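Folding Problem: From Residues to Backbone Shape
Fields: amino acid sequence; protein backbone structure tokens
RECORD BEGINS BELOW THIS LINE
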Amino acid sequence: MGATAVFTIGELSRRTGLPVKTIRFYSDEGLLPPTERTDAGYRLYDAHALARLELVRTLRELGLGLADVARALEREASVRDLAVRHVEALDEQIRRLRLRRAVLRAVAKRDSELEEVKLMNRLAQMSDEERKRLVDEFWAEMTEGLDVDPEFYERMGSAKPELPDDPSPEQLEAWLEFAELVQDPEFRRLIRGMSESHAADRSAGASTEVTQAQRDNWFAWSADARSAIDAGLGPDSPQGRELADTIAAASAGPDDDPADPAFRRALADKFASGGDPRAERYWQLLAIINGWPPIPSAQPEVGFMLAALRS
């Protein structure tokens, strides 16, 4: 056929593989105006219209809406600008699809009931800002009206959950558990109680240095407890008693007697509150969500130190 050849809709369909119904729809929408019409009113299209139809199909296959396709054809917007905008929309859609996939994987793994599925989906769809605000509100409530060490609590609240765009099932499950944990009334009472105890010690005057000594030495004490456990030694062994002496001496204030059993029992009670497994779980979950190195449980070491102080 020559350059002046024209095609019916049926011939366009055979050449492009598009259904006649689709081509007629594009034509009715103004995306593919006919080149001319027969005396009987049938639409005819030339080679330029054929090329235009191929472009329409390409843009539609890339996901552009009819309005954007029309703007591109009329040169109201460049194909490049439309592509950039569409890439941004696709990125957001892909992010949501990945989250949805992760939720479904977690649902399948946990064999969740309907109400839990709805909650999991809502939590998973939270934005980074919403997740950070959840943590900020949690720590604000934990310290409201209390005279606490601002530097210490600022460090505690500065670590925020940052779920990646394509979270693993483990990361999503960790986030769901973390969100449930910080909203759990029992956990909130635990942390609030620790904050109140901290504020009371702070107001007593001499406790700040004691608390700092405990922070500075905690990992060394845990390592000593682990060494004793690995060696098969009990809390009432010489090594256990030596560790208890060390902890009591470092933790005693000016008016405390490190050898006093009552002081040691009170100290053990305070350690038990601070070493609660749920408080430890808070940081373990943050590590999973943010891709930090795993935080192993220190519960055996904590238990050893508590028993050593009480023995």
